[in-house]
Design a protein that fits this description.
The protein has about 400 residues and is an all-alpha fold. The chain has helices at about 10-25, 30-40, 45-65, 65-70, 75-90, 95-125, 130-160, 160-185, 205, 210, 220-250, 255-280, 285-305, 310-325, 330-340, 345-375, 375-390, 390-395. The chain has 2 domains: about 1-200, Growth Hormone, Chain: A (Up-down Bundle); about 210-405, Up-down Bundle (Growth Hormone, Chain: A), CATH 1.20.1250.20.
Length: about 400
Protein backbone atom coordinates (compact mmCIF):
# COMPACT_ATOMS: atom_id res chain seq x y z
CA UNK A 1 0.00 0.00 0.00
CA UNK A 2 1.44 3.38 -1.03
CA UNK A 3 1.73 5.93 1.74
CA UNK A 4 0.63 9.53 1.40
CA UNK A 5 3.52 12.03 1.12
CA UNK A 6 4.39 13.72 4.41
CA UNK A 7 4.22 17.49 4.87
CA UNK A 8 6.56 19.35 2.53
CA UNK A 9 8.31 20.76 5.59
CA UNK A 10 9.09 17.19 6.67
CA UNK A 11 10.35 16.46 3.15
CA UNK A 12 12.73 19.43 3.36
CA UNK A 13 13.90 18.23 6.78
CA UNK A 14 14.67 14.73 5.47
CA UNK A 15 16.70 16.07 2.55
CA UNK A 16 18.48 18.60 4.79
CA UNK A 17 19.54 15.90 7.27
CA UNK A 18 20.95 13.67 4.54
CA UNK A 19 22.68 16.61 2.80
CA UNK A 20 24.24 17.82 6.07
CA UNK A 21 25.60 14.41 7.04
CA UNK A 22 26.99 13.96 3.53
CA UNK A 23 28.81 17.29 3.84
CA UNK A 24 30.17 16.28 7.25
CA UNK A 25 31.66 13.19 5.57
CA UNK A 26 33.62 15.50 3.31
CA UNK A 27 35.38 17.15 6.25
CA UNK A 28 36.99 13.94 7.58
CA UNK A 29 39.93 13.77 5.16
CA UNK A 30 40.84 17.50 5.25
CA UNK A 31 40.71 17.46 9.08
CA UNK A 32 42.02 13.99 9.94
CA UNK A 33 44.15 13.51 6.81
CA UNK A 34 47.28 15.22 8.17
CA UNK A 35 47.15 12.89 11.20
CA UNK A 36 46.70 9.54 9.49
CA UNK A 37 49.00 10.32 6.55
CA UNK A 38 51.78 11.20 9.03
CA UNK A 39 51.12 8.01 10.98
CA UNK A 40 51.26 5.90 7.82
CA UNK A 41 54.35 7.72 6.55
CA UNK A 42 52.63 9.14 3.49
CA UNK A 43 53.40 12.49 1.94
CA UNK A 44 51.07 15.26 3.14
CA UNK A 45 50.10 15.90 -0.48
CA UNK A 46 47.95 12.78 -0.27
CA UNK A 47 45.39 14.81 1.70
CA UNK A 48 44.76 16.82 -1.46
CA UNK A 49 44.84 13.77 -3.71
CA UNK A 50 42.27 11.93 -1.58
CA UNK A 51 40.02 15.00 -1.49
CA UNK A 52 40.22 15.28 -5.29
CA UNK A 53 39.45 11.56 -5.62
CA UNK A 54 36.24 12.15 -3.66
CA UNK A 55 35.22 14.70 -6.30
CA UNK A 56 35.90 12.09 -8.99
CA UNK A 57 33.49 9.76 -7.17
CA UNK A 58 30.85 12.49 -7.19
CA UNK A 59 31.35 13.07 -10.92
CA UNK A 60 30.98 9.32 -11.51
CA UNK A 61 27.48 9.43 -9.99
CA UNK A 62 26.57 12.54 -11.96
CA UNK A 63 27.50 10.88 -15.25
CA UNK A 64 27.40 7.08 -15.15
CA UNK A 65 25.06 6.69 -12.17
CA UNK A 66 22.22 9.11 -12.87
CA UNK A 67 19.85 6.16 -13.38
CA UNK A 68 20.18 5.48 -9.65
CA UNK A 69 17.81 8.34 -8.83
CA UNK A 70 15.18 7.23 -11.35
CA UNK A 71 15.33 3.53 -10.48
CA UNK A 72 15.41 3.78 -6.67
CA UNK A 73 13.85 7.15 -5.85
CA UNK A 74 15.64 10.25 -4.59
CA UNK A 75 15.61 9.55 -0.84
CA UNK A 76 16.52 5.89 -1.25
CA UNK A 77 19.40 6.81 -3.57
CA UNK A 78 20.67 9.34 -1.04
CA UNK A 79 20.42 6.86 1.82
CA UNK A 80 22.15 4.11 -0.15
CA UNK A 81 25.02 6.34 -1.27
CA UNK A 82 25.42 7.62 2.30
CA UNK A 83 25.49 4.03 3.59
CA UNK A 84 28.22 3.14 1.09
CA UNK A 85 30.17 6.26 2.11
CA UNK A 86 29.86 5.52 5.82
CA UNK A 87 31.13 1.97 5.31
CA UNK A 88 33.98 3.32 3.17
CA UNK A 89 35.12 5.57 6.02
CA UNK A 90 36.37 2.48 7.79
CA UNK A 91 38.68 1.67 4.86
CA UNK A 92 40.89 4.59 5.93
CA UNK A 93 41.88 2.45 8.93
CA UNK A 94 43.89 0.23 6.56
CA UNK A 95 47.40 1.64 5.96
CA UNK A 96 47.09 1.33 2.19
CA UNK A 97 46.95 4.15 -0.34
CA UNK A 98 44.93 1.94 -2.69
CA UNK A 99 42.23 1.37 -0.06
CA UNK A 100 42.26 5.05 0.86
CA UNK A 101 41.62 5.97 -2.79
CA UNK A 102 38.73 3.49 -2.95
CA UNK A 103 37.33 4.98 0.27
CA UNK A 104 37.49 8.49 -1.17
CA UNK A 105 35.75 7.40 -4.37
CA UNK A 106 32.94 5.83 -2.36
CA UNK A 107 32.60 8.85 -0.09
CA UNK A 108 32.13 11.03 -3.14
CA UNK A 109 29.03 9.05 -4.12
CA UNK A 110 26.75 10.73 -1.57
CA UNK A 111 28.08 14.15 -2.47
CA UNK A 112 27.32 13.53 -6.12
CA UNK A 113 23.89 12.07 -5.41
CA UNK A 114 22.73 14.89 -3.12
CA UNK A 115 21.92 17.59 -5.67
CA UNK A 116 20.11 15.67 -8.43
CA UNK A 117 18.24 13.43 -5.97
CA UNK A 118 17.31 16.32 -3.69
CA UNK A 119 16.25 18.47 -6.65
CA UNK A 120 13.87 15.80 -7.93
CA UNK A 121 12.26 15.28 -4.53
CA UNK A 122 11.90 18.96 -3.64
CA UNK A 123 10.57 19.97 -7.05
CA UNK A 124 7.92 17.26 -6.89
CA UNK A 125 6.73 17.77 -3.31
CA UNK A 126 7.26 21.42 -2.29
CA UNK A 127 5.15 24.51 -3.19
CA UNK A 128 6.38 26.52 -6.17
CA UNK A 129 6.02 29.81 -4.28
CA UNK A 130 8.58 28.60 -1.71
CA UNK A 131 10.88 26.84 -4.17
CA UNK A 132 13.92 29.14 -3.83
CA UNK A 133 14.03 29.15 -0.05
CA UNK A 134 13.40 25.39 0.02
CA UNK A 135 16.39 24.72 -2.23
CA UNK A 136 18.47 27.23 -0.28
CA UNK A 137 17.67 25.50 3.01
CA UNK A 138 18.77 22.24 1.41
CA UNK A 139 22.02 23.82 0.25
CA UNK A 140 22.57 25.33 3.70
CA UNK A 141 23.28 21.75 4.72
CA UNK A 142 26.65 21.97 2.93
CA UNK A 143 28.18 24.73 5.12
CA UNK A 144 26.28 23.37 8.13
CA UNK A 145 27.92 19.99 7.61
CA UNK A 146 31.26 21.74 7.21
CA UNK A 147 30.78 23.63 10.47
CA UNK A 148 29.75 20.49 12.34
CA UNK A 149 32.70 18.56 10.92
CA UNK A 150 35.14 21.39 11.62
CA UNK A 151 33.97 21.78 15.21
CA UNK A 152 33.38 18.12 16.13
CA UNK A 153 36.07 16.10 14.39
CA UNK A 154 39.19 17.81 15.86
CA UNK A 155 38.04 17.33 19.50
CA UNK A 156 37.17 13.72 18.71
CA UNK A 157 40.65 13.18 17.29
CA UNK A 158 42.25 14.81 20.33
CA UNK A 159 40.15 12.78 22.79
CA UNK A 160 39.85 9.40 21.09
CA UNK A 161 42.22 9.36 18.12
CA UNK A 162 41.44 9.63 14.43
CA UNK A 163 40.28 6.01 14.11
CA UNK A 164 37.49 6.46 16.62
CA UNK A 165 36.65 9.82 15.05
CA UNK A 166 36.12 8.07 11.69
CA UNK A 167 33.97 5.42 13.41
CA UNK A 168 31.85 8.11 15.08
CA UNK A 169 31.26 9.93 11.78
CA UNK A 170 30.30 6.60 10.21
CA UNK A 171 27.92 5.89 13.10
CA UNK A 172 26.26 9.30 12.77
CA UNK A 173 25.57 8.50 9.13
CA UNK A 174 23.85 5.25 10.07
CA UNK A 175 21.72 7.12 12.61
CA UNK A 176 20.74 9.68 9.95
CA UNK A 177 19.67 6.89 7.59
CA UNK A 178 17.62 5.23 10.34
CA UNK A 179 15.92 8.51 11.29
CA UNK A 180 14.93 9.29 7.71
CA UNK A 181 14.05 5.72 6.69
CA UNK A 182 10.40 5.80 7.88
CA UNK A 183 9.71 8.72 5.51
CA UNK A 184 11.21 7.13 2.41
CA UNK A 185 8.14 5.21 1.26
CA UNK A 186 5.96 8.32 1.45
CA UNK A 187 8.43 10.55 -0.39
CA UNK A 188 9.78 8.37 -3.19
CA UNK A 189 7.41 7.33 -6.01
CA UNK A 190 6.05 3.77 -5.77
CA UNK A 191 8.03 1.16 -7.75
CA UNK A 192 5.52 1.07 -10.60
CA UNK A 193 6.01 4.81 -11.21
CA UNK A 194 9.80 4.74 -11.35
CA UNK A 195 11.66 4.76 -14.63
CA UNK A 196 13.23 1.46 -15.65
CA UNK A 197 16.80 2.64 -16.16
CA UNK A 198 20.14 1.04 -15.47
CA UNK A 199 21.59 1.85 -12.07
CA UNK A 200 24.98 2.41 -13.68
CA UNK A 201 25.80 2.86 -17.36
CA UNK A 202 29.18 3.33 -19.00
CA UNK A 203 27.81 4.01 -22.47
CA UNK A 204 28.98 7.36 -23.82
CA UNK A 205 25.44 8.23 -24.88
CA UNK A 206 24.20 7.75 -21.30
CA UNK A 207 27.16 9.54 -19.70
CA UNK A 208 26.48 12.63 -21.85
CA UNK A 209 22.76 12.72 -20.96
CA UNK A 210 23.17 15.21 -18.06
CA UNK A 211 24.94 17.74 -20.28
CA UNK A 212 22.62 17.14 -23.24
CA UNK A 213 19.60 17.69 -20.99
CA UNK A 214 20.71 21.31 -20.51
CA UNK A 215 19.69 21.94 -24.12
CA UNK A 216 16.15 20.72 -23.47
CA UNK A 217 15.06 23.43 -21.04
CA UNK A 218 14.49 27.14 -21.40
CA UNK A 219 17.90 28.84 -21.15
CA UNK A 220 19.27 26.02 -18.99
CA UNK A 221 22.76 26.38 -20.42
CA UNK A 222 22.91 30.05 -19.46
CA UNK A 223 21.69 29.30 -15.94
CA UNK A 224 24.21 26.46 -15.59
CA UNK A 225 27.12 28.60 -16.80
CA UNK A 226 26.15 31.15 -14.14
CA UNK A 227 26.67 28.43 -11.52
CA UNK A 228 30.02 27.51 -13.03
CA UNK A 229 31.20 31.14 -13.05
CA UNK A 230 30.00 31.88 -9.52
CA UNK A 231 31.69 28.71 -8.26
CA UNK A 232 35.08 30.00 -9.44
CA UNK A 233 35.54 32.83 -6.89
CA UNK A 234 33.83 30.69 -4.27
CA UNK A 235 36.48 27.99 -4.75
CA UNK A 236 39.19 30.64 -4.54
CA UNK A 237 37.84 31.98 -1.25
CA UNK A 238 37.26 28.60 0.39
CA UNK A 239 40.55 27.04 -0.73
CA UNK A 240 43.02 29.89 -0.39
CA UNK A 241 41.64 32.56 1.92
CA UNK A 242 43.36 31.22 5.04
CA UNK A 243 46.64 30.78 3.15
CA UNK A 244 46.40 34.33 1.78
CA UNK A 245 45.68 35.80 5.21
CA UNK A 246 48.60 33.93 6.79
CA UNK A 247 51.22 33.98 4.02
CA UNK A 248 50.22 37.12 2.17
CA UNK A 249 49.11 39.36 5.02
CA UNK A 250 51.00 37.91 7.99
CA UNK A 251 47.94 37.02 10.05
CA UNK A 252 48.22 34.26 12.66
CA UNK A 253 46.73 30.90 11.78
CA UNK A 254 44.24 31.00 14.64
CA UNK A 255 43.01 34.46 13.64
CA UNK A 256 42.77 33.46 9.99
CA UNK A 257 40.81 30.38 11.08
CA UNK A 258 38.39 32.63 12.95
CA UNK A 259 37.87 34.77 9.84
CA UNK A 260 37.24 31.63 7.79
CA UNK A 261 34.78 30.28 10.37
CA UNK A 262 32.80 33.51 10.21
CA UNK A 263 32.54 33.15 6.44
CA UNK A 264 31.33 29.54 6.71
CA UNK A 265 28.71 30.45 9.30
CA UNK A 266 27.54 33.44 7.28
CA UNK A 267 27.33 31.21 4.21
CA UNK A 268 24.82 28.94 5.92
CA UNK A 269 22.50 31.82 6.77
CA UNK A 270 23.25 33.59 3.49
CA UNK A 271 21.90 30.73 1.41
CA UNK A 272 18.60 30.81 3.27
CA UNK A 273 18.47 34.62 3.06
CA UNK A 274 19.00 34.71 -0.70
CA UNK A 275 16.40 31.97 -1.14
CA UNK A 276 13.89 34.04 0.85
CA UNK A 277 14.70 37.12 -1.23
CA UNK A 278 14.26 35.18 -4.48
CA UNK A 279 10.81 34.00 -3.40
CA UNK A 280 9.82 37.48 -2.20
CA UNK A 281 10.76 39.17 -5.47
CA UNK A 282 9.63 36.11 -7.47
CA UNK A 283 12.82 36.17 -9.52
CA UNK A 284 15.73 33.80 -9.19
CA UNK A 285 17.74 35.50 -11.97
CA UNK A 286 17.43 38.95 -10.32
CA UNK A 287 18.65 37.49 -7.02
CA UNK A 288 21.54 35.75 -8.75
CA UNK A 289 22.50 39.01 -10.45
CA UNK A 290 22.58 40.75 -7.06
CA UNK A 291 24.73 37.91 -5.71
CA UNK A 292 27.09 38.15 -8.72
CA UNK A 293 27.63 41.88 -8.21
CA UNK A 294 28.08 41.42 -4.45
CA UNK A 295 30.56 38.57 -5.08
CA UNK A 296 32.52 40.83 -7.42
CA UNK A 297 32.67 43.64 -4.85
CA UNK A 298 33.70 41.40 -1.95
CA UNK A 299 36.38 39.59 -3.99
CA UNK A 300 37.85 42.92 -5.13
CA UNK A 301 37.85 44.05 -1.48
CA UNK A 302 39.80 40.92 -0.49
CA UNK A 303 42.29 41.56 -3.29
CA UNK A 304 42.82 45.13 -2.01
CA UNK A 305 43.08 44.18 1.68
CA UNK A 306 46.27 45.05 3.55
CA UNK A 307 48.10 43.84 6.68
CA UNK A 308 47.22 47.04 8.57
CA UNK A 309 43.48 46.44 8.28
CA UNK A 310 41.83 45.95 11.71
CA UNK A 311 40.49 42.51 12.54
CA UNK A 312 36.90 43.76 12.55
CA UNK A 313 37.28 44.75 8.89
CA UNK A 314 38.28 41.21 7.90
CA UNK A 315 35.46 39.74 10.01
CA UNK A 316 32.95 42.08 8.38
CA UNK A 317 34.26 41.26 4.90
CA UNK A 318 34.15 37.51 5.54
CA UNK A 319 30.60 37.75 6.89
CA UNK A 320 29.52 39.66 3.79
CA UNK A 321 31.39 37.23 1.52
CA UNK A 322 29.63 34.27 3.12
CA UNK A 323 26.39 35.67 1.71
CA UNK A 324 27.74 37.18 -1.51
CA UNK A 325 30.27 34.55 -2.60
CA UNK A 326 28.68 31.39 -1.18
CA UNK A 327 24.97 32.16 -0.84
CA UNK A 328 23.90 31.66 -4.46
CA UNK A 329 23.87 27.84 -4.62
CA UNK A 330 20.30 27.15 -3.58
CA UNK A 331 18.79 29.80 -5.83
CA UNK A 332 20.80 28.61 -8.83
CA UNK A 333 19.85 24.97 -8.31
CA UNK A 334 16.18 25.94 -7.88
CA UNK A 335 16.40 27.94 -11.12
CA UNK A 336 17.82 24.92 -12.95
CA UNK A 337 14.98 22.75 -11.62
CA UNK A 338 12.39 25.38 -12.63
CA UNK A 339 13.64 25.53 -16.21
CA UNK A 340 14.03 21.78 -16.63
CA UNK A 341 11.46 19.38 -18.02
CA UNK A 342 9.88 17.55 -15.04
CA UNK A 343 11.07 14.14 -16.23
CA UNK A 344 14.66 15.42 -16.65
CA UNK A 345 15.17 17.27 -13.36
CA UNK A 346 17.80 14.81 -12.00
CA UNK A 347 19.69 14.93 -15.33
CA UNK A 348 19.54 18.74 -15.57
CA UNK A 349 20.64 19.14 -11.95
CA UNK A 350 23.49 16.69 -12.59
CA UNK A 351 24.55 18.54 -15.75
CA UNK A 352 24.64 21.87 -13.92
CA UNK A 353 26.54 20.37 -10.98
CA UNK A 354 29.08 18.81 -13.36
CA UNK A 355 29.98 22.32 -14.55
CA UNK A 356 30.18 23.55 -10.95
CA UNK A 357 32.34 20.61 -9.86
CA UNK A 358 34.62 21.15 -12.85
CA UNK A 359 35.11 24.74 -11.71
CA UNK A 360 35.76 23.51 -8.16
CA UNK A 361 38.47 21.17 -9.45
CA UNK A 362 40.19 23.52 -11.90
CA UNK A 363 40.15 26.75 -9.90
CA UNK A 364 42.46 25.60 -7.06
CA UNK A 365 44.94 24.15 -9.56
CA UNK A 366 45.07 27.25 -11.78
CA UNK A 367 45.08 29.61 -8.79
CA UNK A 368 47.98 27.72 -7.17
CA UNK A 369 49.95 27.72 -10.42
CA UNK A 370 49.35 31.46 -10.86
CA UNK A 371 50.57 32.18 -7.32
CA UNK A 372 53.62 29.95 -7.82
CA UNK A 373 54.61 31.98 -10.88
CA UNK A 374 53.66 35.50 -9.78
CA UNK A 375 53.29 35.40 -5.97
CA UNK A 376 50.47 37.95 -6.45
CA UNK A 377 47.38 36.98 -4.50
CA UNK A 378 45.84 40.38 -5.16
CA UNK A 379 45.89 39.94 -8.95
CA UNK A 380 44.63 36.36 -8.61
CA UNK A 381 41.59 37.51 -6.64
CA UNK A 382 40.94 40.36 -9.06
CA UNK A 383 40.81 37.78 -11.86
CA UNK A 384 38.35 35.71 -9.83
CA UNK A 385 36.18 38.80 -9.37
CA UNK A 386 35.90 39.07 -13.16
CA UNK A 387 34.26 35.63 -13.26
CA UNK A 388 31.48 36.83 -10.97
CA UNK A 389 30.99 39.96 -13.03
CA UNK A 390 30.69 37.86 -16.20
CA UNK A 391 27.42 36.46 -14.82
CA UNK A 392 25.65 39.81 -15.22
CA UNK A 393 25.32 39.72 -19.05
CA UNK A 394 24.28 36.06 -18.87
CA UNK A 395 21.48 36.85 -16.43
CA UNK A 396 20.33 40.15 -17.92
CA UNK A 397 17.02 39.66 -19.73
CA UNK A 398 17.13 35.89 -19.32
CA UNK A 399 13.37 35.73 -18.68
CA UNK A 400 12.22 37.98 -21.49
CA UNK A 401 14.63 37.66 -24.42
CA UNK A 402 13.62 34.85 -26.80
CA UNK A 403 16.26 32.18 -26.98
CA UNK A 404 15.16 29.19 -29.01
CA UNK A 405 18.42 27.32 -28.49
CA UNK A 406 18.08 27.36 -24.69
CA UNK A 407 21.57 28.76 -24.40
Amino acid sequence: MTRSPPSWIVVVGVILVLQTVSATHGRLVPVAGPVFTAEFGWDQAWVGYLTATSTVGALFVLTAGIGLMHRLGGVYALQLSLLIGSAALLLYLVPSIAWALIASLCMGLSNGTANPAGSEVLTRLTPKEHRNIVFSVKQAGVPLGGIIGGLAIPPLIDALGWRYAAAVVSGVSIVAIMLTWPFRAGIDPPPEQRARQRLVSFRISDILVPLRSLSRGERLWRTSWVGCLLATPQAGWVTFMVTYLVVGLGMSLSTAGLVFAVMQTSSMFGRVTLGWIADRVASGPATLMIAAVASTISTIALALSAPDWPLWAFLLLSAFAGIAVSGWNGVQIAEVARRSSPELIPESAAGSVILIFTSNMLTPVVFAAFIAVTNRYDIAYLILAAFSLACVPLLYGIDRVPDRSGR
